[in-house]
Design brief:
It is a single chain. The chain has one helix and three strands; from the N terminus they run βββα. The protein has a three-stranded antiparallel beta sheet, with no helix packed on it. The longest helix has 22 residues. The protein has one domain. The termini are far apart. It is of the alpha+beta class and 55 residues long. The radius of gyration is 18 Å and the shape is elongated. Strand 2 and strand 3 form a beta hairpin.
């Protein structure tokens, strides 16, 4: 089991690879934050120029 430091909340049961105590909203929020940080890293390392629209 993996536990948050100093808390009684079980985050992941490793043998079954399932989320135990986190609600759906927390899981989705974490996934979105991870995805956005990945996009941010790509944009930081490989900047692109976007064409101007409507001009």
């Amino acid at each position: 089991m993996v536990r948050r430091a100093g808390a009684d909340i079980v985050l992941v049961d490793l043998p079954q690879w399932r989320l135990s105590s986190l609600g759906d909203e927390a899981v989705i929020t974490g996934a979105v934050r991870f995805a956005l940080s990945s996009v941010e890293e790509v944009l930081r390392t490989r900047p692109t120029l976007l064409p101007a629209r409507g001009r």
